[in-house]
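Run: sequence + cobalamin -> complex structure.
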Amino acid sequence: MRILLVQAPTGRPEAPIYPIGLAFIAGQLSRHELMGLDLSLSNNYRVPLTNAIESFCPEIIAVSLRNIDDSSYPVTYSYIKPFSELMDVLESWEGIVISGGTGFSIYPEIILERFPRIDYGIPGEGERTLPELIDHLEKGSSIEGWSGGRMLPWKQADLGSLSPPDYRFIDISLYTIPDSIGIQSRRGCAFNCSYCTYSYLSGSSFRCRSVDKVIRDVRELEDLGVSRFSFVDSVFNAPENYFEELLSALEESECGISWSAWLDQNVTLSQLVRMKTAGAVKVDFSPDAITDKGLKKLAKRGRAADLLPIVTSARSVGLQVGINFFSSNPGEGFLAFLRKIWFMLRVRSTLGWKSTFVNIGTIRVYAHSPLAGYMKRTGSVDEDCTFFEPVFYRSRGPGDWLYRLFQRVRRLKHG
Ligand code: B12
Ligand code: SF4
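>> structure
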């Protein structure tokens, strides 16, 4: 069949992010005729879409809805309006529309209800169910666990038997900013931090791809002329034995490509050195809290006292470092927020202003996170709150004013 794989529009200029979810899907659909189209690359997405429909004549349009909103407080940008406009354009087209992606998967019922133009919705990983659905549409074959209807069953992919992502389904040379192209070596996360949706989306244990397959992806990107990529994995240094195995393979591969990864603080200096040797140029930490109490309430691993030493170690081996905090989180209030700002000024001024980045965000509470359940149980939100409209876990009073001021300055500075 002719299938147009579409990344949903963002509706505003944004740093382009290569649609790796669709690349994995494309890798499983090699017997079909495919065309990739990233509508987030253009403000005027109607023209590229109608052009693609006219020239390619797809029978199926598979749309990836990655994000519902940008999770920013106090000014939140919603991606639902451009998605809605995309659906309006598709009203006059007669083929089959299928949707999936993380934004879809957190709210599948709401999205299917709001957008009747979607013929089928596939929550979760799409690699098993989408080919099954296409076979069903082509040949009438049955789909295990599905009794009809617009919502298809949620099925985890078997990473052992998965074909590699097809990095050629779309022109990769359009993604030039650092870290805009991803490689995924594992899925899921075993840590279940209280605000996080990762285990809901891809399982509460680590599922690792074979290191050979990961190295194959690295070589493929190198062949395509990519000079830097980002590991999109939840925690690159967990589980530790897989982390070590992958590091060895990266070292042995002698690939000349740079990369970045998200780590937690349970990483040693010698592992950081090995990462640097294997091509790492940047690491990101997401401690989120700055006190042991805050870490515990967020169910984060690690101790507050470990953060500065590990950031210093990473800088000492020449890695750029990103550190992410929340302005307000369970167990931490205004004083902790001031400490985070102090930490930011301290590490940036002592470890390198241009190589040490600190982001202080706000928890955008998503459905299916443990925190969403907690907020319902404690009456912070109504029992029937869906969290589709943004809900933030935020401070009140001076903490909130200061955070708004902090964000205002950042917006003025960075646009
Ligand atoms: C890595 C990552 C980033 C990196 C991306 C780096 C890169 N080069 O790719 C960075 C840091 C840049 C980033 C930025 C943002 N991110 Co982010 N990110 C992730 C993360 C951890 C992994 C995404 C990923 O690459 N997955 C790997 C691929 C293979 O999986 P996938 O995309 O989910 O695709 C699979 C399925 O979704 C499905 N699928 C996908 N498309 C389709 C289409 C069809 C038709 C079908 C059937 C199936 C299907 O099948 C695919 C294969 O299994 C997720 C969390 C998570 N666990 O998913 C958050 C996540 C996607 N991000 C999120 C957010 C909010 C953002 C930002 C808006 C944050 C911000 N304030 O700027 C920005 C938006 C950037 C953008 N333009 O998209 C949210 C989205 C929540 C929501 N429901 O709206 C998530 C879910 C995290 C969370 N908070 O819960 N992100
Ligand atoms: S915040 Fe990070 S470590 Fe915690 S559950 Fe989510 S992905 Fe895992």
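>> summary
DSSP finds 15 helices and 15 strands in the chain. The first helix runs from residue 20 to 27.
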